[in-house]
Amino acid sequence: MNRKILVVEDQEDINALIAMNLEAINFEVTRVHDGLEGLKLAQEDSYAAIVLDIMLPGLDGLQICQQLRSKGHVTPILMLTAKKTEADRVVGLEVGADDYLTKPFSVLELQARVKALLRRVEFHSHPVEEEVDEGELRLGDLTIHQHKRDVIMGGKPVSLTGKEFDLLLYLASFPGRVFSREQLLNAVWGYQHSSYEHTVNSHINRLRAKLETDPSNPQYVLTVWGVGYKFNDDQKPR
Length: 238
Hints:
The chain is of the alpha/beta class. It contains eight helices and twelve strands. It has helices at about 10-25, 35-45, 60-70, 85-95, 105-125, 160-170, 180-190, 195-210; strands at about 5-10, 30, 50-55, 75-80, 100, 135-140, 140-145, 150-155, 155-160, 180, 220-225, 230. The strands form three sheets. The protein has a five-stranded parallel β-sheet, with helices on both faces. Strand 4 (about 75-80), helix 4 (about 85-95) and strand 5 form a beta-alpha-beta unit. Helix 2 (about 35-45) packs parallel to helix 3 (about 60-70), helix 6 packs across helix 8 and helix 7 (about 180-190) crosses helix 8 (about 195-210). The chain is globular.
């Protein structure tokens, strides 16, 4: 299993503290202090997760996250922020971060958040036995392997982030059922505050861009105006 974690944090004391406590739970940590260098390493090497500060010299964490996601990198990202406003947290989630942690944070919480992000990676290193049902869900030209956590559209693999996959799987598990943004936030992210609802919109848009032939006229993830979203029940399970 990949135990490498990239820490991009410009404050040396915090950077060192993060590294020390991740190494204490047997992770191999690469530390950088500059946004441009962080982006370079994230693109050149394979990491199990990235711990990414928002305020960085050279290139900020939001820009790094956005660039990685736009280029198809699905490495789990834990965003660090010294800002406590909900708007800052929402922006981080919207550009593709998997979770966030507000400074100051406890060492135990940091370790717990990183472990939670890596559960999906750890699952890949312990595949289910062949005789166990792999949890395949097929709807139209879309195939979702629940246990493998991969997606095939029209015979071609689709790279999704962890939250994009969770959102797609949740909607596809209930074809035709309409969910409000608040319900999806609660089910997929675990957040219940209404100010985070735009995060759902952003992830839906990214899903459509990856799945749909014409994202402006979606055939799978549909908008129910004034309510929320649903998976098209005309795409029959197979």
